[in-house]
Design brief:
2 copies of one chain form a homodimer. Chain A is an all-alpha fold. Chain A has 11 helices and no strands. The first copy, chain A, has helices at 34-48, 55-62, 69-72, 76-88, 102-119, 122-126, 134-149, 154-177, 183-194, 200-204, 213-229. In chain A, helix 1 (34-48) packs across helix 2, helix 5 runs parallel beside helix 8 and helix 7 (134-149) packs across helix 8. Chain A is flat. Chains A and B meet through helix 7, helix 8, helix 10 and helix 11 of A and helix 7, helix 8, helix 10 and helix 11 of B.
DNA sequence: GATTGACTCGTATAGCGTACGAGAGGATAA
DNA sequence: TTATCCTCTCGTACGCTATACGAGTCAATC
């Protein structure tokens, strides 16, 4: 009887013996594993987007049967969670010795966060399903520790962390969802001039036509950090 | 031959004559229309969530065949877009005569925005698919005009608008995705204490256990507005 | 009366997530 | 050596999905 593999947290799924690989056909795939499934899911998501990621197609890419995946992973939702957390994890930079000031540190980490997500645009649309994996937790911890070292009082720390998180997530999701608009930009332009009298302000400032996403992100982040800095 | 109804922007789908209803069976449904489809989709989404909203079930609720919907609506994606924009539209308050200061105005509008979305939690997870419907555009215009009247220079206006938008969207999406956590809270608590040594800061500040979402939202918004105000 | 256009919907196709249970194959116990 | 067990794979099947296609209904118009 195939008892579903338990989900105990510390479990290592590798074979006990772990001598040499079972050597199926030479040139065949390595054995399935949660890690390989997640890595391949990220590839598939990158290539085909959220809609193109099906368990069958994922299994195909892995050279396995669709149902084999379910031994390693509860369900499709779980695959999404794992892929998302993997993408969001912070790979600490080599830590060049000089200690930056806290603002630069925060900006660097948050810009990296945003960049990581934009490199995998599907991650933005997956985010709304909560997934507090180790990757996200690691980022939050790092952010909190920087701010704390910078002198933010514990009583204000949660507000500071969540404000920055909210800003980054909102900016990234917005940016990612506006990604594929090139022919749509013409339509937006047209619609905007049509609706100009109803929307004079955003037409005047060309809000929807501004392309400097990175600059706008950075400037808004500065505004937020100004507000935080003024609080101490 | 059933030529698909065109999507020209100004079109009014109603019957030309529009005398009295075709009087099918007494007590039967009113005729299909885009408006009725969207309204019912919102109901269905409220009741069953994103996963429970299928074209068949929507058609059932409307007392129609599934394929009938496609005369009024391009595809399921479009239904989502329309439902989202409907929920996000700003129903201007009765406008009590006294003109508030700009900060209160901004806060009021943004809190209403957030509340509108949290009333329909699925809207947060739908947001990442861009949908620049009239509802969202109306909000953006209003926000821009308030800020402009408050003295924000045109050169800074886009950054201000996007910063606030980003913050609200991030906060709302985060909040909505953490919604259903009651038994999970125990798990989070446990995991947090287990991982306490790896995440000392967020454990100390009880980041994940803080329940005062509304207060945190408001405080963070104040931080951001402080930053904006200090810029003039 | 004939024609047209707006609208409804039955049927069918291709795909989906995943429950179920059989079975392969190595490890262990007898 | 044989029997048992555990881990892992996967073929089949079920119920569901979005939607393409085309036939059919009915009111308005010519």
């Amino acid at each position: 009887m195939a008892a579903k593999r338990s989900d105990a947290p510390g479990r290592k799924p590798r074979r006990a013996g772990a001598k040499l690989e079972p050597t199926k056909q030479p040139g065949s795939e390595p054995p399935l594993s949660r890690e390989r499934i997640v890595a391949t899911a990220v590839e598939l998501l990158d290539a085909e987007g959220v809609g193109g990621m099906s368990m069958r197609r994922l299994a195909d890419r892995l050279g396995a049967g669709a149902m084999s995946l379910y031994w390693h992973v509860d369900n499709k939702e779980k695959v999404f969670d794992l892929a998302l957390d993997q993408v969001l994890a912070y790979r600490e930079p080599p830590q060049t010795g000089e200690p930056r000031n806290w603002r630069d540190e925060v900006v660097h980490m948050l810009e990296d966060w945003r960049k990581s997500m934009l490199r995998h645009p599907w991650s933005a649309s997956l985010l709304p399903r909560r997934a507090l994996g180790p990757g996200i937790l690691g980022r939050l911890e790092l952010l909190g520790s920087i701010l704390s070292r910078a002198g933010v009082a514990d009583a204000d720390l949660n507000v500071a962390i969540w404000s920055l998180w909210n800003y980054v997530m909102g900016a990234t999701i917005t940016r990612a969802s506006f990604e594929l608009t090139d022919d749509e930009k013409a339509a937006a332009q047209q619609r905007l001039s049509t609706l100009g009298e109803r929307h004079p302000t955003i037409q005047r400032t060309r809000l929807l036509l501004d392309n400097d996403w990175d600059g706008t992100f950075r400037k808004g982040l500065d505004v937020l950090l100004d507000g935080l800095a003024g609080r101490q």
